[in-house]
Input
Amino acid sequence: MQKNILRYALVLGFSLIVSSCISTENEKFFGTTKPKHDPNVLWINNGSEPQYMDPQKASGAPDGEIVRNMFGRLTEINPKTGKPIADMAERWEISEDGTEFTFYMRKGLQWSDGKPLTAHDVEYSWLRLLDPETASVYASLAFDIVNGDAYNLGAIFVQGQGLSVEKIQDTLSALDLGDIKQSKYPAGFMVYPEGSDKDAVRKAILKKVNEEKVLGAEVTAEPAAKKHVQAKALDDERFWVKLNGPLPYFLAMIEFYIFAIVPEHVIEKIKARDGDDSLWVRPENVVCNYAYCLEEEAFRQYKIFKKNPLFWDAKNVTLDTVKAYSIESGNTNIFMYRTGEVDWTGANTDVPLEYIKKLKHLEDFHIDPYLGVYFYGFNVNSKPLDDSRVRRALSKAVDRKALSEILGGGEIPFADMVMDGLAGYKSLGTPLFEPKEAKRLLAEAGFPDGKGFPRLELVYNTQEKHKQIGQAVQQMWKENLNIEIELVNKEWKVYLDDMTGRNYDIIRRGWIGDFIDPYTFLELALSTSGNNRTGWKNAKYDKLIRNANIMSDYDKRLEMMREAEKIHAQEMPFMPLFLYTRNHIKKPYLKGFYFDYQGHHHWRYMYIDERYYDGKYHKELPEEEDPLRRSPVWPPSEETTTITLDEIKGSKSASVNVTQINKVGS
Amino acid sequence: MIRFITRRLIGIVITFFVAISLSFFIVRYAKGSPFTSERAMTAEVKQALEERYGFDKPMPVQYMNYMKKVFFEFDLGLSTKYPDRTVNEIIGMSLPKTMLLGMFALFWAILVGLSAGIIGAVKQNTKWDFAAMSMAVVGISLPSFVLGPILALIFALGLLWFPAGGWGTFSHLVLPAITLGTLRAAYIARLSRSGMLEVVRSDFVRTARAKGLRESYIIWKHALKGGIIPVVSYLGPAIANIMVGSVVVEKIFNLPGMGPYFVDAAFNRDYFLVLGVVIVYSAFLLLLNLAVDVAYRLLDPRVNFNG
Output
């Protein structure tokens, strides 16, 4: 008893201490606003230790943040307008049919070791992305390049007189070949072996065609190789690429870090030395081409980056040193922020939910919308979820506004897959909550007032937020449809296994867009998409999306995508719940920091407002009027950014809905 | 004694071998793979990754290859979570940090625990005793995931005396070491108090007092050696606890020690890293137990090595 009283007293006492220590009621900011370092230094948190810093192998957000600040791409996204602008390429030309792009490299580009950077480096980097040996999980993003998929997937290129799909199929029918596609350039066919023993099929095709000559004396076969991929340096200044169709989002897509330019001369040297190239991004080896270069690292602690004086826009880069911590714990992150040990809690670690209420009113706390949708996936082969009326009923019975209020992290209630305004897209505007219609649909499907509805399982991976959402939805379905759902919590890898094997009824999902275009979300529901995992297939949907991607009229393309999304809304294999948001805290002295829909923040634009060294708060000036802004033109390269997709195609590409962003961000 | 140690070392090698073998098959047959992710990867990418780590080979071959590498080349393999790092490299970077933290925590635990225990025993049933034992109750009642954030809030956020997290200087170690060592300090205080009480009431202490020896001399020279025997036997599990317990503390204070790998590697199905951690911890625990047994014998001649 005495021990218990002591425990309660302790808890109460410590709660009071805790509360007083983080009391912020009379403050505008969380902790110190006086920088603890020199004005040319920045301390940030990058979240967890990056898995890869190699652009072509990177896949996580902490990887991306570092890669994006060390390696340039041909284009980048202007964070003020959301449009693709020139980066390592100063301009580009697009062919009449919109399928061929010729990029002109900036003059005098150099690697940080002084070696010239040319279009050949771009060719090397893009082909490295597609090289099966690189094993890039993002290689499929480059499958729109002619023969990019053939090279990556290990297809066999068959070329010769009098060939046809039928002839290849009939002659080699015993080999269970799989897909055969006409290769656009050079003329011929790409045979994509399928099944578990692809290597044996490949070898058999090569033998039958080249040695046994089963397709004729003039016909030859060879494994798809780099030379077949239609992405080449025409000379030192020009890089040319041919796509399978006009992709309106291509310039925005290649801003993604996997398309970053990497140093062949370093990578190949390391490969020759070690047998593989994995150590080329270590501080002692790495050579960069962007604003910063890795100087020093302490594994799982921090990485120190130094300004690259040979970066093409180095004169407009203010910060000399960026120290990026790897702090995974949300608590430690905000503690270190409060004491001034980090200037920005970073884009990859959220402020813990329990602090949001306390910090929400502060000027340095921000909640930004994010290019991501949180949704539930239905296994459409599991009864009664094979009936679209049931799926729609479940969706309409969820009160998304109430759900967002429960979560309290600024999540935007949403019932569609693609957000309004994304690259000019007009959202369907599906109502957020229709309980009556939900009841009607369920009755129509044979379950009036939920009678006879089986007990389904809703699978989620271990995380408090997913549990909270699951419980709220479970309650809403009970109240509005009178049905019982069982919540099943699974450990991350088991959850992924179940998702891949479709071992679930309903499963929690989420998707962060890779580039600013509706396709990044609509691709999920394609029957051929490896990310679908619901078993839903709709030929009309597939056709609309495929055709939209080869449509040169941008408005028509968006309309076709909208039509496709209407099919999705009617069929509802995915049930969207809300749009993600990211929250973070940033010191008022950190300037040159722009909102970004994808959470990308270039260090090259950031700087420290030196007025804050006096320990006082200085009212924020609009960025353009800020007298201390050292780079007067924003973006620094604006005068050289003469060509954008908009100007060339007269389209609405890559614009974001700024009204919505401001409203939510405020 | 040499026979005893040799016999124990043989046992350790066998236990070690069994532990690695069992762990190998448990982690390899656990559901999920290191390469599954929310974003689907092509079969070609998966195949390339599996080839890199040798997962494309039959399980017995994988086992043999792994054991051969571990025992003959001291190569613990490649991490799948951090693919450009070897497990040797990761453990080599993190183990010294965990050990340093452990040493400080142990130092804190022994210093505070023994002092409180001795004071409690010598000043039995006084306010000193009450204060020391109350502190022990507080120490035992507060788990490190509660104590750590509280210390950080008071001493890092409130008073700004120490950093809230990170690694590099002595001040980075203070709060984590106190967090990690406090629970053990509390146990040591209680054990040493009861051990000392038993000894100070024994005949030889009474004789020493009767001879007119100074009290402090009696405590330090005669009573302490016998009084801390329970503490010594606790030190083995305590050091093990400190090493394993550092998982939580290293997470709270964002320390780059081995603790986080203990859990994260399992969640990530980072097979070789899991095994590497198992190897290090099991070697550590087995050798530590041996060391405690030897120390126990040296402190108490009644303990028989052949027993």
Chain B touches chain A through 55 residues (CB under 8 Å).
